[in-house]
Structures are given as C-alpha cells and as structure tokens.
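Note to self: the last two entries modelled the partners one at a time, which told us nothing about the interface. This time every component goes in together.
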Amino acid sequence: MSTVADVIHIDTRGGAAASFDRALRAVTRPVSVVWPRPTVDEWGRDAQFIEALSPVTHLRWDVSVGGEHHLSGGAALIVVNTRRFALTPVSTALALSDVLHRPVRFVGRPDTVPFGPFLRRMGGLLARPEEIAGALRAGDLVVLGAQGTLNPRQAGVVDHTLVAAALSEKVPVHVAATLSTVISRQARVEVAAALRSRKKRRGPLAEVELAEHAQRRLQDLLDEMGGTRTGVPGLGWLGEG
Amino acid sequence: MGSELGSLVATMLEAEPWVGALEGVDVDPPRRRLRKAVFHRIEPYHRQQVVDVVGRFNPHVLIHVAVWEPDARVTTAQARTFTTDAATSFLGAAAECPALEHIVVRSAACIYGRARGSLSRPDESAPPNPTTEFGRMAARLEAVANDVGRRTGVTIGAVRLAPVLGPHVPSPLGRLLRVPVVPFSAPADPPFAVVRDSDAASALVAAARVGLAEPVNVVGSGAITAWQAILRGRRLPLPLVGPEWGLARRLSHILGAPVPEHVVELLHRGRLVDGTRVQELLGFTPAHSTPEVIDRLYEWPSVIRVPSSLPWPGQPQIDRLDPETAEVAS
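The predicted structure of the combined assembly is written out below.
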C-alpha cells in the first residue's frame, strides 16, 4: 500500500518552551494559585484559589455532610443556621462543594477590600435579592445564613427578602442544620428535603411564610440532631458554643 | 461607519439578505472595503447636513454606533462632546424619517456602574447607575434614544457591550494590558469580562435583524482577573494598593496608554454582566470567551507588515499574513 500523504504535526509553541513550561508548573505546584490560568468563573469564584486555600480550611473545619442526595443537579437555595462569628455559610458552601463537586456560593460578602474580593473568590455573593436571583437563574446552589445566634442549637430569623429570590426564580428551598464548635474542628451539615408549602400565596405573604417555614424546619432539624460535646470530662459544655 | 466596529457592522450588513440599500455617516472613512454601502463623510455637529442626508435616505432601521470611548481615540472631554453631538444629530435626524421603524444603539456595560454594594453581575433588569463618564455617556445616549422612541413610536434596542477588544479596535483596556509593565489592584484584583469586536458587531446586526426592543448585555463567556491576564500575556505585573494609582495613570498616559476612569474602575471593582439573555433576545451567542479574547489580544502583532504592491530591491518574502490583520494597510 502506498503512502498518500504524510501528516506533519506542528506544535503551537516550540518543544523546548513547552518542556520548560511543564517543568516550571511541576516545580511551582504548591503555589499553583499564581499560574496564569483564567480560573475565575462568571461570578468571580476562583476554583484554583479555593483549592490553594483548602489546607487552611481543612485545618479549621472537618465537616461531615449528610442528606446531600436531596439536592438535585439544578439550582437551589439552602438556608443554614448560623452561629455568630462562625462563618457558617462559608464552611457549609465549601463542604457542599467538596461533596457535590460543583460550585456552591454563599450569601453575605462585604463589598470592601480586602475581605470583599477575598470572599468573592471563595464564592461569596452580596446579600441582595437580585444577586441571589441571578445566581439561582444561572443554575447554582446558594447557601444563605439565617440570622446569627449565640446558641448553636437555635435557628435565627430567616430574611424573607432574600428568600424571595428563590420564589421568583421558582427553585426549591432546602434547609441545612449545621453544628460546629469554637474549639473543635468537627462540624456537621445535614441537608433536608426541599420545603413544601401547603398554602399557595400570590402576594408577598408567600416569602414571609416561606422564611418562617424555613426557620421552623431548621429548628426541628437542630433539635433532632442534638448538641455537640467536646468529650472532655467537666468541659463538655464548651462544645455548645 | 468610520470606526473599526462601524466598518465591521457595515460589512456584515452588506451580507445580510434582508438589507436593501445601506448608507452610513461618520467623520472618518470606512476601514474596510464596502461594496454596497454608500458613505457620507460629515462631522456630527453639522446637523443640517446630517438631517439632509438621513432624511433623503429615509431608513427603516438605524444602527447608531457613534460612541467614542474615552481615551480610545480622543480625550474624555472630546469623547463626551462627540458622542453627544452624534446622538443629537443622528437620532434627531432619524426621528424625522417617516419610514423609520427601529433604532439600535451601541451602549456599554459601564452603564450599570460599580458603586459600593452594587450587583456583582447585573442583568438587563438592573437600573442604570453609572459611576464613570463612559457609563454616563451610555446612559445619556440610551435616554435620548428612548425619548426618540417614545415620541415617534419606533422600537429601541440598546446593545450594552462589555469592553470591546479586537485587532484594530482602539481600546484603552487593550492598550494597557499590552504595555510591558501593567499595573493592577493588588488588594482587589477583581474579575472582568470582555467581548471580541466581531461578536459585538454580530450582536448589533442581530439586534437590527430581530428588531430588538429592549436592552441586552453582550459579553464573552467566562471571566478573568487583571493578574491572570497579565501573566498570560507574559507582562510584568505592577501591584498597586491605592494612592500611587494617580502617579501610575500619569506615567502610563505619558508612555502612550492613558487609563481612563472606567478602566481604573474595572481594575479596582471589576466588571461582569449577566449576558445569558442574548441567545433568547438575539438568537446569537458570542463565539469567543473572555480568556480567548485576552489570549488573542496578546497574539495580535504590534506592527503589521504589509507587502508593498511594487517590489523593491532586497524586499523580504512575506509568505503569509494573518487573515485578521491582512485587511488593514495602514
């Protein structure tokens, strides 16, 4: 059989330059966040940045997640209880993202440097209904924290103006109970099935009742989960806060 | 029709089956070879001349691309004056045409502004709240167009473009990213998105074809930060934190890459817009993503070498020209 033609493969860059690039990338892997790859998504979340930070976040939190099968592949709003100063929405979003292998955003970043851009890279959204609605419209999972409480076993008030975004975009609302302590790495996130409202409302009562429903369901879940204990004799109560 | 974007739109319109006669007005001659279109070189402030030409042509559709981006080709003050003059003349003249059915205006994503607490990724329903001169120019242009629409009953479509980059498009952002040392905001380094000139032109043509009657955001998919763009272009990043930006802007201006306030805002606060409705409204999706456009930005040659039509002694053989750059001979 005779040869019809030879296929010549031409590299886009020289072989030496490509080898140098590969070697450089291998050497700089621990600081891979500086690689010139466009890793931010259309909301500013940076997967590479989160990956680079993961040793630090895992040093602080060791989160076990349950009930993630309740979350479908599409968009959903997840309301979580928040212990004051605990960054619960951030840790929940990172833990869910790890388990589900998809971006999970959280509500409540500031819009000032340096914390605003930092949290934006981690998937933070502004606490505005339009912002949440936009992310839900794009098919994302969004974690929304209830009002912070000092008692970790108490569900705070859920902002109905923010929950309204889920109604306007017709996406399911889930609640997720979280348990964490100040002194321990161990944390737990338990996602419940989507909330179902018995009453159909056409007006603004819909979001108010949905927010109240979410708070009640969240409280039920927290009661079912029980408290956390440190396991240290005489200091078990520390786990409560 | 004299700008790169206008010439590109005219070229695409010539290929559209629904376009019969095509005429254009600008201060500069077209940058591309036009086969069907008739061009009139008129200064925008010569209002009567514009009214005569547009009135005689009596168009069904007007595509208004006459928006001067500050520090792209002219200073901010001149850009403001030229854009206002052009809007008054062209849109005013079009309003007198009895056959007019539809107006498309080229607007900008800067129209949403980036005030503190404003949406990270506004969609078309977000109210305009411009925070830079370019954004205010876009808002004024849309206001004039909407006023014309209200008075005459024609539909108005505003195509809100992300920063437009292309091989020949004068862009302060593109120019800044290509200098050897590029300043960026170290504490923020926010993401932004851009659109390729061919995608912007396709969107304007599609808006005219479908009779767009509302605003639409046009932006390349994905996003990139200034730091990532600088590293991809193998430029030297210059991290700045705040007060030294004034000095950096002045130095950059002296070196030939002025940094207008909307580019400073982009580097400090980012610029993302929600462009998901473009498919629904225009039946079209930008073909190039933001990272692709940025990569292409660094591939475009600084000096375009075009062989002379007559050979000269010692002339080097130029085998191949980049098809993107081959059309321009200046």
